[in-house]
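Appendix C: a fully annotated inverse folding record. The material below is reproduced so that readers can follow the format used throughout the book. The structure is listed first as tokens, followed by the designed sequence.
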């Protein structure tokens, strides 16, 4: 992996860092991305509230299918490299848009999930949180009888407040920000690296291709995150 000495020096001198990750960091695990050249999940995918209100059973079944697909996938070298970064920086957090739990599986123990987690569920009415539920039929809440849905953020829904506040806090206080495998088109997640930059952080994008964020970041490394991040970690030792 080619990286300017100046940039490597900057990374090595940082004490606090965070990574904002997107579907591209899980793509090497075999989980399709939403957009980009082999984007899989189209906008027709029932990832929204209207769809759920119209046909909750269908949306429940579809999310169970996704969860079962994701369950068969393993963390890839980019996940392990980010988990290892915890030993390189005094403070290292992963802020992820992904719902696949692969950062946690790879050993990252400080993960902020902006878009929820496919293994967690919640009552659509009272908000009670449930773990994984294996049920063909959409389950009902034992507290209020409401329908239970995946605890993931659908289009048009607000992000979990505490996750967003924590992510912003890291963005504002970290010296370094890695932006890994995201097209940078979905807000407010995509603005987190920009907040970081505004506050003086050095922002490095790792992506297969240029994105809308490329012109704003300080440095881009184009290629496969599953190759770049492990190599970068080795260079920091
Ligand atoms: N290494 C690095 N980058 C990669 C790799 C890889 N191996 N494979 C794909 N990419 C890049 C693509 O070039 C693209 O820029 O990952 C990005 C994936 O973009 P999206 O599919 O738009 O995923 P993401 O940015 O995470 O989407 C954000 O949109 O649909 C919603 O809630 C969903 O969390 C998701 C959000």
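Designed amino acids, in order:
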């Amino acid at each position: 992996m080619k990286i300017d000495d100046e940039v490597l020096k900057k990374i090595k001198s940082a004490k606090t860092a965070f990574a904002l990750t997107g579907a591209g960091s899980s793509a090497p695990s075999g989980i399709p991305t939403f957009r980009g050249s082999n984007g899989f999940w189209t906008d027709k995918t029932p990832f929204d509230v209207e769809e759920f209100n119209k046909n909750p059973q269908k949306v429940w079944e579809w999310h169970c299918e996704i969860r079962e697909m994701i369950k068969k996938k393993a963390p890839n070298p980019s996940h392990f490299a980010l988990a290892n970064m915890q030993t390189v920086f005094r403070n290292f957090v992963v802020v992820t848009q992904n719902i696949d739990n692969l950062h946690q599986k790879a050993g990252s123990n400080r993960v902020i999930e902006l878009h929820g987690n496919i293994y967690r569920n919640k009552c659509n009415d009272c908000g009670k949180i449930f773990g994984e539920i294996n049920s063909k039929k959409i389950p009902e809440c034992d507290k209020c009888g409401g329908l239970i849905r995946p605890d993931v953020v659908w289009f048009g829904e607000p992000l979990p407040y505490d996750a967003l506040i924590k992510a912003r806090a890291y963005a504002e206080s970290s010296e370094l920000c890695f932006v890994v495998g995201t097209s940078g088109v979905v807000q407010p997640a995509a603005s987190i690296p920009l907040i970081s930059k505004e506050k003086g952080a050095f922002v490095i994008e790792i992506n297969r291709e240029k994105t809308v964020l490329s012109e704003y970041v300080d440095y881009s490394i184009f290629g496969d995150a599953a190759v770049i991040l492990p190599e970068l970690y080795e260079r920091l030792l």
